[in-house]
Design brief:
Elements (H helix, E strand, L loop, with lengths): L1 H18 L73 E5 L3 E6 L10 E7 L12 E5 L4 E3 L5 H6 L6 E4 L8 H8 L4 E2 L9 H7 L3 E4 L10 H6 L4 E3 L8 H5 L2 H6 L4 H23 L6 E4 L1 E3 L2 E3 L6 H8 L3 E2 L11 E2 L1 H8 L4 E3 L8 H7 L7 H4 L3 E3 L20 H12 L13 E3 L4
Parallel strand pairs: 3-4, 5-6, 5-8, 6-7, 8-9, 10-13, 10-15, 15-16
Antiparallel strand pairs: 1-2, 2-3, 11-12, 12-14, 16-17
């Protein structure tokens, strides 16, 4: 009986030890980005007699994009771009997100393009995808950038990354006070480009993380092939091919991709789009739609804004009747002086003449026949060159591209001053007849 009791006690001890064996602890769920397959279940550890271990840390989705520095502990299950952009206006590019890289595709990289360009933007500190084809691979966020168009400055300023600018095309055309201050402090270099030969040696000396250029209508002025040939990371910005003001301004989101600043760009554009749309709605409600024409004579032809052009959209949104709205061109068709005079001699307003016109005498020096237009006679000629620097750089074509809501406010103030009584003109000046 005593032996039986001893056996019972031993059996109970064995059962107790087995019962104390460790069990797999509950795991914190791994966040899985949309359209990504869920990870395979984690196999539970084999039971042992040791005390249950503390659960190891597991991957979590980041709260925000990394805008500085690199990943130091890469986890393929982490979505490194929780802040993403979506497009509502721009038609020239698209974006696809993956866990540690994003693919940007330029759909219209240059006028008449039949090809597209792709860039693979890889989160610094993580591996690039194995097969990228002909796409250019760039690590983000970039720390240094060369901007070869003045239209890119406003985006850099708003995104809070202007300090990463190291070079520009030339200093003469620049209006932005922040960029001018960097020039004065000796923080920027000139490397040319566009109509002047790009200085490849200067670009190589800088070794920037990114050079943002553009493809002009004239292929002889394209810089990016030359820069790519020497191994520099050159990408195209073709915002100027967008055919409506908000479409161009939405390229701030394109710029943001290279700095992981999507959250900022998304909010900046949303606020701008709301302001623009609200003003356009007010202008649309005005019953009186004044007649308007644009342009001036250049080398024997009058260049107007095409009826489907970027500026024609401004005129529609500002509540006007554009005299060439029936024209299907997206660019600047050429007409004779007589053709314009026949249709526009008695028009209510004339806008966007030569950037060299700041007075009525300047207008008449261009062509004395301009005096035949009622808009000139009545002081209703408004030119988009109020903000010129000492060398003729026009801020309308610099910060104006990124501020279509301000340009629209100027135009509404001109055509319907009662709609925006407190607004003061920013980009436009009135040219009154003298005497």
């Amino acid at each position: 009986m005593k032996r039986l009791s001893t056996l019972v006690i031993m059996l109970l001890l064995i059962v107790g030890l087995v019962a104390c064996g460790s069990q797999p602890s509950a795991q914190t769920p791994i966040a899985v980005p949309a359209a990504t397959a869920a990870p395979a279940p984690i196999a539970p550890p084999a039971p042992t007699a040791a005390p249950a271990p503390t659960a190891a840390p597991v991957a979590e989705t980041l709260d925000a994009n990394l805008t500085e520095g690199c990943v130091t502990d890469y986890d393929p299950e982490v979505d490194y771009f929780p802040d993403k952009v979506t497009l509502s206006r721009a038609l020239g590019w698209k974006i696809e997100y993956f866990n540690n890289y994003k693919v940007v595709t330029l759909l219209r990289p240059y006028p008449g393009a039949t090809e597209s360009f792709s860039y693979v933007l890889v989160q610094c500190g993580t591996p690039a995808p194995s097969d990228v084809g002909d796409a250019l691979v760039i690590e983000v966020p970039v720390n240094t950038i060369v901007a070869l168009s003045t239209t890119q400055f406003a985006h850099l300023i708003r995104l809070g990354v202007l300090d990463r600018l190291v070079a520009v095309q030339n200093f003469k055309q620049i209006n932005s006070p922040e960029v001018l201050a960097m020039i004065e402090a000796g923080k920027l270099k000139e490397i040319g480009g566009g109509s002047t030969e790009v200085n490849i040696e200067a670009a190589l000396d800088l070794q920037p993380d990114l050079i943002m250029t553009f493809a002009a209508s004239d292929p002889t002025q394209w810089d990016h092939p030359k820069l790519l040939e020497v191994g520099l990371k050159a990408v195209i910005n073709s915002e100027w091919l967008e055919e409506e003001p908000l479409g161009r301004a939405e390229w701030i989101k394109y710029m943001s991709l290279f700095f992981n600043k999507e959250a900022e760009a998304q909010q900046i554009f949303a606020d701008m789009e709301e302001r623009y749309s609200a003003m356009a709605a007010k202008a649309a409600a005005v019953a009186d739609k004044p007649t308007v024409f644009t342009g001036f004579m250049y080398k024997g032809s009058w260049y107007i804004s095409g009826g489907k052009s970027y500026f024609a959209r401004f005129l529609t949104d500002a509540g006007t009747s554009y005299l060439w709205a029936d024209n299907d061109a997206t660019g600047s068709p050429q007409l004779s002086f007589e053709e314009v005079l026949e249709r526009a001699q008695n028009a209510d307003f004339w806008v966007n003449g030569s950037q060299f016109w700041t007075s009525a005498s300047d207008v008449l020096k261009g062509d004395e026949r301009y005096a035949q237009f009622a808009a000139f006679q009545n002081g209703r000629l408004y030119n988009n060159n109020l903000r010129l620097n000492d060398t003729g750089g026009n801020d309308y074509w610099e910060s104006g591209v990124a501020n279509p809501d301000v340009i629209l406010a100027d135009l509404i103030k001109i055509f319907h001053p009662e709609v925006l009584p407190d607004h003061e003109l920013v980009y436009y000046r009135q040219i009154k007849p003298e005497g």
